[in-house]
Amino acid sequence: MPLVSLTEWNTFLEEHSGAHLLQSGEWGELKSAFGWEPVHIIEGETGAQILFRRLPLGFSFAYLPKGPVGATEPGPGFWPDLDTACRSRRAVFLKVEPQGWEGEGQQPVFKKQAFVNSPQHIQPHSTLVIDLHGSEDEVFNRMKPKTRYNIRLAGRKEIMVHSSLDLENFYQVMTVTGQREEFHVHSKEYYRRAYEIFYPNGMCELFMADFRGHTLATLMVFAYGKQAYYFYGASSDEERNRKATYPLQWEAIRWAYARGCEEYDMWGIPDEAKDVDIDEAEAREDGLWGVYRFKRGFGGAVKRALPAIDRIYNPLLYKLYQWRFSGSTAD
To answer: Does residue 284 register a pLDDT over 70?
Structure first.
């Protein structure tokens, strides 16, 4: 049977340690609390968690983030089963953001399939990935000298980094930063639900950097298999000279290292970063370039995700959707 239960899906993932967090059953559970329907398909050694979101007039949008999982040559029934799941929910189209990086080969799973290149990415297209192999000291010493200096400086300036359960404080700092930097902030309930789902399984930690009992910066880090992800983070406008974000990020990296992760994904930098030289990056002040310079200091390699692709079921409504949502799709 191609459609499987959440329990069966989690059992399947136990044999695929390289699966992305966005294909985990926990991620599907989180999204189901906020308007998405997770559906799981397994055909032989290939599987996929597809997220469906309702559109007006009974149609839906189908999304396959960082998948499929498993064998790169699926059995003959995989794509027909996937199409059946999409058509039965009146999906206008299926958006796939494949797992993998440009320059490292397109997954054979998509060969000879009816996809078109997508003009939109939902997840960040470019990122910095930190290699966690070697000793903790080796990971630290691969960072830029200024970053190492700022981590040590923050300690001398009385910054204390600790894990926390204070989601109210986390959300308050997130809101302040979102307004200042003009980036999207989820609802308080979204962050709370994410923490409640992932933390009991050892897949999430909330860290805060305080100065004399007052929180200056905070982040929520996730891990799945051998990968860790810096999804959510923020800093206040106060005491910025104390460099609280640096030891905070280092503590999250140390957490990922201690639980056996091999990579730490900084999750989002300007898409042009791979093509911009260091001098230009230092001079740019628009958009996310300040964030990029901060993240780059931790020693990661710039990587660009494989292009998003769409599988169209209703060409007319697909064109209408692209026109209506040309700037973005869904969260």
So the answer is: no
